[in-house]
Each structure stands twice: as structure tokens, then as C-alpha cells.
Specification:
GO molecular function: ATP binding
InterPro entries: AAA+_ATPase, ABC_transporter-like_ATP-bd, ABC_transporter-like_CS, P-loop_NTPase
CATH topology of the largest domain: Rossmann fold
Radius of gyration: 24 Å
Distance between the termini: 41 Å
Bound molecules: adenosine-5'-triphosphate
CATH class of the largest domain: Alpha Beta
Largest sheet: 6 strands, mixed
Helix content: 25-40%
Number of helices: 11
Pfam families: ABC_tran
Structural class: alpha/beta
Strand order of the largest sheet: 7-8-9-4-10-11
Oligomer: single chain
Number of domains: 2
Keywords: ATP-binding, Nucleotide-binding, Transport
Organism: Streptomyces bobili
Order of helices and strands: EEEEHEEHEHHHEHEHEEHEHEEHEH
Shape: elongated
Length: 329
């Protein structure tokens, strides 16, 4: 342990060398598994304090491996990871009490009630105060909506309830950072909504939330920032609004002269032209939209509507990779 890293807990209040505004900071973080699989390849990640940060990528793109390195569960092959300003895994002991994590589903004892699972979990945490244990457990159960089911055995819980119990475990103490690996995986729409509401509440209280997902719309709904992974590499990161804005949305022309409009748009280099009733849509090339409009008018097309839809994160992903976002992985 060297002086530079201030690994003792007291120092965690102060910003680390990476700066106080970044709660997760990695540089060229790389993991090659023993079998030779390059799971994470030169990752430079910067998660701003106070953000709800979506870590997005298809199954197998390296999200879980990254999270396990961030939490000090596995060693990187090369590169560095800092969490709350301190190096991982070296500063795990000082950092982890400030981090609530839900990784690869909660480890629960089916024969214990939800409440007893949390009591037991808290008792295993040397930083937890036993005097406040029961009150903190009750509060966490309330927070995730499990108070009524607290006395039920965990094995009788639905998947959504188990996931919420896992979240409650992460919330037994105030946290500066929450790391959630696919928190809505396997949940029904209602369960997903509940988790989203909870994430928003936690963020509103100032907790930075880092959550991985393979669902684009989920990231768009809850996240302020996102990073997009594919095949172990980072494609892009930044505020969600900027990521989407970087991609151009689809051009939509409303006209009674759809056949002529489609022909003119194709001549002008618009790709993927699709005609539906009184609309022609397509992917505009990198040229002035006003020139496209002028070409339509010059060709005698009666243009009743002309515009570009707001680009979605999916548009951005497709633009980045040249391929669709394959949810099934
Ligand atoms: N323990 C391991 N040993 C060898 N290879 C592994 C190991 N764990 C993961 N991998 C491989 O590393 C790559 C990245 O996996 P990882 O689980 O990090 O991706 P992911 O984006 O989290 O996907 P998922 O959502 O399916 O977990 C995959 O090709 C996977 O097969």
C-alpha cells in the first residue's frame, strides 16, 4: 500500500487522484481469461458522480467481467480500475463498504425468510452496526416493497421479489455507489417498472447508480449517461441525449406522390427507402436536408410533411456498429 493511494477508509471522503467527479474510472482495463478469451479489451470508462450510468451491450460483450473487476472480485490482466478514487482490487476493503452491489443474482438462503436473509447478510458485514441492524433491515424491506412478504421463506419468492431482496441487501447501509448487473433480467414488465422507479429514487437522493443491461429502451428510460460495449470493446460513452443525437434519425416525407418521392430520395442517396401509405421514410446520407427537400419540390412532389425523427439509442448503436442490437446475444 503506498501513500499515494490513501487506502484507509477515512480518506474515502476526499476525492482520489482521478478527481472527485468520477466515481468509476478505468484506464486500458483488460481481461483475458485463462482459456485465452479476451473478454474486456482496453476499456477507458468514466462514470460521473450523480449519474445513472447505463452499461449497455449484448450478452457476452464483457459487462459482467468489467463489473467483477470493478468490484475487486477478479484481477485485471492489465490496465487499472479506480472506484471512488481508489485502485481496485487493492483498496477493496476501504471502497466496498461504500458500494452496494447486485451481481449475477442475489445469493439467498431459500430456507430463511426474506427478513432473516437480510439480518444474516448484515451480520456478515464487519462494518455494519449490530445495534441498528433490525431497523436498517426493516427500512430496506420497506424501500423495496417487501415488508408484507418479509416473514415468507425466500424460496417462495418470485424472481422479481428475489431481485428486490437482493437490492434491499445492497441498501442496508447508505451507499455512494450502487452497481447493479442486469437488475431487471428475467423480470416481468411490472417488476421492471418497480426497479426503474427505485433506481430513479436512489439517484434523486444522490447515489450514483451503475447498471448493466442488454435492453436499449431500459437505458433510455432511466439513465442519464451510457457506455456501449460490443465484443469487449467500448464503442462510445457519454450523456444518453448526446449519444442519440450523434446518430441521425429516419427521414420521413409525407406526400400523396409516394412513388415519385421514393425515386427522388433514392437518386439523392437516401438509403433504405420504405413507402407506407402517404409516407416515405429512409436513412438520409450526410448531406443537407434542405437540399433533399428542394430536390423533391423541383421534381413536382407535393411535400406535406418533411422531417427527421429524433434518433434513438438504437439508431446510435446501429450507426456505430453497422449492425442491429441483437438482444438475444
Ligand atoms: N470465467 C470465464 N472464463 C472464460 N471465459 C469467460 C468467463 N467468463 C466470461 N467469459 C467470456 O468472456 C466474454 C464476456 O463475458 P461477460 O459475461 O463479461 O459478458 P456480458 O456482457 O456480461 O454478458 P452476459 O450478459 O451474458 O453476462 C464472453 O465471451 C464469455 O464467454
Amino acid at each position: 500500500m503506498d501513500d499515494d493511494d490513501n487506502d484507509d477508509e477515512a480518506a474515502l471522503g476526499a476525492p482520489g487522484p482521478a478527481g472527485g467527479d468520477t466515481v468509476i474510472h478505468t484506464r486500458a482495463l483488460t481481461k483475458r481469461y485463462r482459456g485465452g478469451q479476451l473478454a474486456v479489451d482496453g476499456l477507458d470508462l468514466a462514470v460521473p458522480a450523480g449519474s445513472v450510468f447505463g452499461f449497455l451491450g449484448p450478452n457476452g460483450s464483457g459487462k459482467t467481467t468489467t463489473i467483477r473487476m470493478l468490484m475487486g472480485l477478479i484481477e485485471p490482466t492489465s490496465g487499472t480500475a479506480r472506484v471512488l478514487g481508489h485502485p481496485m482490487p487493492r483498496a477493496s476493503r476501504a471502497v466496498l463498504p461504500h458500494v452496494g452491489a447486485l451481481i449475477e443474482g442475489p445469493a439467498l438462503y431459500g430456507f430463511l425468510s426474506g427478513r432473516d436473509n437480510l439480518l444474516r447478510y448484515d451480520a456478515a458485514d464487519p462494518t455494519a452496526d449490530p445495534r441498528t441492524r433490525r431497523a436498517r433491515v426493516a427500512e430496506a424491506l420497506e424501500r423495496v416493497g417487501l415488508t408484507a412478504a418479509a416473514a415468507k421463506k425466500a424460496r417462495a419468492y418470485s424472481l422479481g421479489m428475489k431481485q428486490r431482496l437482493g437490492l434491499a441487501a445492497a441498501l442496508l447501509q447508505p451507499r455512494r455507489l450502487l452497481v447493479l448487473d442486469e437488475p431487471t433480467n428475467g423480470l416481468d414488465p411490472q417488476g421492471m417498472r418497480e426497479i426503474r422507479v427505485l433506481v430513479r429514487e436512489l439517484a434523486a437522493e444522490g447515489t450514483t447508480v451503475f447498471l448493466s443491461s442488454h435492453l436499449l429502451d431500459e437505458i433510455e428510460q432511466v439513465c442519464t449517461h451510457a457506455a456501449v460495449m460490443a465484443r469487449g470493446r467500448l464503442l462510445t460513452q457519454g450523456p444518453v441525449a448526446d449519444l442519440a443525437a450523434r446518430a441521425r434519425g429516419r427521414l420521413t416525407v409525407t406526400t400523396p406522390d409516394t412513388a415519385d418521392a421514393a425515386r427522388v430520395l433514392k437518386e439523392q442517396g437516401v438509403a433504405d427507402v420504405v413507402v407506407t401509405e402517404d409516407r416515405v421514410t429512409g436513412e438520409p446520407a450526410d448531406r443537407e436536408l434542405s437540399a433533399l427537400n428542394a430536390a423533391l419540390v423541383t421534381a413536382g412532389v407535393r411535400v406535406r410533411g418533411f422531417g427527421v425523427e429524433r434518433a434513438s439509442l438504437e439508431d446510435a448503436f446501429v450507426a456505430l456498429t453497422g449492425e442491429g442490437f441483437d438482444v438475444a446475444g
